[in-house]
Amino acid sequence: MKKKFMFLAVLVIFSMILAACAPKVETPSPEEPPAVEEPVVEKPAEEKPAEEKPDEEPPAVEEPVEEVIAPLPQGQELANAYAGMYAGTVVTMAGPFTDQDAVVFNDSIAEFEAATGIDIQYEGSKEFEANIMIRLDGGDRPDIVDFPQPGLLQTAVDKGYAIDLETLINPDWIKENYSQAWQDLATMNGMVAGIWARANGKSFVFYPKAKFEEYGYTIPETWDEMMALTQEIADDGDTPWCIGIESGAATGWTMTDWIEDTLLRVAKPEDYDAWVAGELPFDSPQVNEALDYIEAIWFNDDYVYGGRAAIPTISFGDAPKPMFDDPPGCWFNRQGNFVTTFFPEELEAGVDYDFFYLPPIKPEYGKPVLGAGDIYAVFNDRPEVRAVIQYFSTGESLRKWIEVGGAIGVHNDASLDWYADPVTRGVAETIRNATTFRFDGSDLMPGAVGAGTFWKYMTDYVSGTITRQEALQQIDASWPR
């Protein structure tokens, strides 16, 4: 038994030795795929990022700073415009400029458009006065409207269409750049309804200077001297006066200017103001006296080119042209200074033509001057519109027009050096030296009268279809009460 136990012990020990000496075989796990050795690729040594110190703050990120554009005296928007902020925008305008006036206006704004990129689109029409209120009433409102007729602007203000320009232009600039008289004329219903642009004096008689001097005629200083010269020219076999009142829907305004200018010479300025306000009737002694002086010229066929019958058919712009025929077809054209833009281009101011002041009639009323102008009103408020109206409040906006003639700037910053010829400079000086200045009366009357019945019935009167009394009474009856 003991031997048998010893044998089993030796057998167990021998088995253990054999198991220990056998090679080990690894069986892969069913969940893991056998390992595949990849080729070793050497990588360049990477720099270790610097360790951040816990007490060190990250550098501050600078925010972009918005450029601040310094405002101009007229307003912030004009400065923005010159900085290019409104490039590509369009500002619409409507007004009466057509033909040569439209060309000169577009030339006068070209530099501003190029500098700012704003496109000012001016729609001019000879039917402007007849159509503008229809457009405004219908909601078809241009951004800016050029009114040669403040009475029409007053109507737009009464209807609440116009924007107070003291909210669009620096009020201090308006006070600085316009005299009190022009500020008063632009104030309607307690608001600044517009700003004045081009102005015209109207108390001037243009004549062909070279021929005038060749014939030995002398500039008249009084109305009586002017009438004596008129008769002298007629006695020489020539026609003294060039007169035409045709102007599309505005036909007749030339006659109304003659009445206003003459009324200032036979009546007190206060009478003129009362007449403009509707307090002095048209069929009054003062207005009838003015018409007596006018009829003595207009209704004398020896004095007027084409005779009385031709006056309503001749355009106001064509009327002076016979002065420059050889020999002159007529000698005198009473008109505003803007009429020089209708003269032949080859003529030289101060050499081929000149003007004299329409003489006084009654010395006690001094040397009055009748004037007119264009007033710009705003009907839509956008930044680019503000920029444009601010620009129009500067003399620079008229510089080109002043330089070519046909305009006088009422802006205080419009330099006298800009007037390129002695005629226009003389006109400016005449306006400055006037003892009395009054704005065109028909332009200050309610639109229905000043741009309506006054024009119409004066045209009928000149045409001979109604009498003077009938014309005056019809106008009186049309006045809004």
From TrEMBL:
Segments of this protein annotated with the region Disordered: 25-63
List the biased-composition ranges (Acidic residues).
Answer: 53-63
Biased region (Basic and acidic residues) positions are 40-52
Is the Manganese keyword given for this protein?
A: no
Q: Does the keyword Flavoprotein apply?
A: no
Q: SUPFAM superfamilies attached here?
A: Periplasmic binding protein-like II
Similarity comment: Belongs to the bacterial solute-binding protein 1 family.
- Name of the protein in its database record: Alpha-glucosides-binding periplasmic protein AglE
Entries under InterPro entries matching the protein: Bact_solute-bd_prot1, SBP
Species assigned in the record: Candidatus Brevifilum fermentans
From which domain of life does this come? Bacteria
Q: Which residues form the signal peptide?
A: 1-19
For this UniProt record, the keywords arranged alphabetically read as follows: Signal, Transport
